[in-house]
Amino acid sequence: MTDDETGYDASPFVPARGGLKALREAAAGCRGCPLHREATQTVFGAGDSSARLLLVGEQPGDQEDRKGRPFVGPAGGVLDRALEEAGIDPGDTYVTNAVKHFKFTRTGPGKRRIHKAPDLREMRACRPWLAAEVRLVDPEVVVALGATAGKALLGPSFRVTRDRGVALPLPPLDGADGEDAGEGVLVATLHPSAVLRADDEQRAQAYAGLVADLRVVAGLLS
């Protein structure tokens, strides 16, 4: 099934000109896939607009959806700590997500919102926003945090366990205006939420692996 057949496509909403501010304002009105119907708001990227390092996560979580900024929840705290331990200043980065709206299911007596991973159609629909961000920031290194980000950047064959922690060429990302999103290096690692989900025995090992992968990134930037 193609995106045309599903009607999932954000490209008509992506402006052909303007900087990140224009992109962020336009993204607030994106209706490129059904996820906007239940989400509180679009959560666009944030950070240093000329950063040498751009980090891509999966999608906003519950707190990000409410506050309108990426990585402001517990996973963001893990990411900032791991960046600092790897020798990278979190303030010198740009962070975003492969999908800009929170996808969730409701469960339990209070109908708590529980994260649900976006599917390939939703990832493809949102790809023009990510391509435009990468092109405008023009980083030297892109970090894919987790499987969804890796698939959005490298294709559906990506596997975190196989591809993490090594410098890979960043493949072309065609923007909505037909321009390539830029050239650079990509390093994949696990999403910091995977550290939070790990049991007590595995959590320290998962965090150490995240830091080790980010040290590869720091070496590329040095």
Strand content: 5-15%
Counting H and I runs of at least 4 residues, what is the number of helices?
A: 9
Helix content: 25-40%
For the terminal residues, how far apart are their CA atoms? 44 Å
- Average pLDDT rating: 92
Q: Give the topology string: H per helix, E per strand.
A: HHEEHHEEEHEHHEEHH
**Main sheet makeup:** 6 strands, mixed
Low-pLDDT segments: none
Largest beta sheet: what is the strand line-up? 1-3-2-6-8-7
Query: What is the H level of CATH, i.e. the homologous superfamily?
Result: Uracil-DNA glycosylase-like domain
| Whole-angstrom Rg | 16 Å
Shape: globular
The assigned CATH architecture is 3-Layer(aba) Sandwich
Query: What fold name goes in the CATH topology slot?
Result: Uracil-DNA Glycosylase, subunit E
Total strands: the figure is 8
Q: Compute the number of structural domains.
A: 1
Q: Structural class, from secondary structure content? A: alpha/beta
Query: Can you identify the CATH class?
Result: Alpha Beta
Tell me briefly what this model is.
This protein has 222 residues and is α/β, with parallel strands linked by helices.
What does this structure look like?
Helices cover 40% and strands 15% of the residues. The chain contains nine helices and eight strands. Strands 1-3-2-6-8-7 form a six-stranded mixed β-sheet, with helices on both faces. Helix 4 (74-85) packs across helix 9. The longest helix is centred in the C-terminal third of the chain and has 22 residues, at 200-221. It is globular and about 40 Å long. Pfam families: UDG (PF03167). This is Type-4 uracil-DNA glycosylase. Residues 44-215 form the Uracil-DNA glycosylase-like domain. It comes from Streptomyces caatingaensis.
